[in-house]
Design goal:
single chain; alpha/beta; Collagenase (Catalytic Domain); four-stranded mixed beta sheet; three-stranded antiparallel beta sheet; 3 helices; 9 strands
Length: about 140
């Protein structure tokens, strides 16, 4: 697995270690033909703390530094990163994909029409994000 961290981000070494740990925990680290790009941006469009978009062998995760009119803490950004990396797992394992019309497919079935909070891929990501964060964050490293 190849990954890049883009954008202005505090504690880049901590973020890189964290991403490595998450990819191992999600058992994605051996997918050597896949690439993950993690990009930190000041503001995101819409009402989101992060996004994940994947096509073929590349997944791009975008993490916002602001949400709902306030700055997100570094730890909030890291928990959002965990959530979005779960979506990377879903895409690379074929659980989440795009249908011919651009709608989401969940486990090979058309999944259009779900409200956000009822989307199965979001339910899984919200359920797993805290576990992934706690298990993978390098708490032993110094944070500025």
């Amino acid at each position: 697995m190849i990954f890049f961290v883009k954008g202005k981000v505090k504690n880049r070494d901590v973020v890189e270690e964290y991403v490595i740990n998450c990819l191992k925990y999600l058992n994605l680290h051996r997918m050597t033909s896949k690439t993950v790009i993690v990009d930190f941006k000041s503001n995101l469009d819409g009402d989101a703390q992060g996004y994940c978009f994947a096509i073929d062998k590349v997944a791009e995760v975008t993490i916002g530094k602001k949400w709902a009119g306030r700055n997100l803490t570094f730890m909030e950004q890291m928990q959002t990163l965990a959530h979005e990396l779960i979506h990377v797992k879903q895409y690379f394992r074929g659980e989440l994909s795009y249908g011919k019309t651009g709608d989401f497919c969940w486990k090979k079935r058309n999944a259009g029409g779900y409200k956000y909070e009822n989307q199965p891929w979001e339910k899984e990501a919200f359920k797993m994000e805290k576990e992934l964060f706690v298990e993978c964050f390098p708490f032993h490293m110094e944070i500025n």
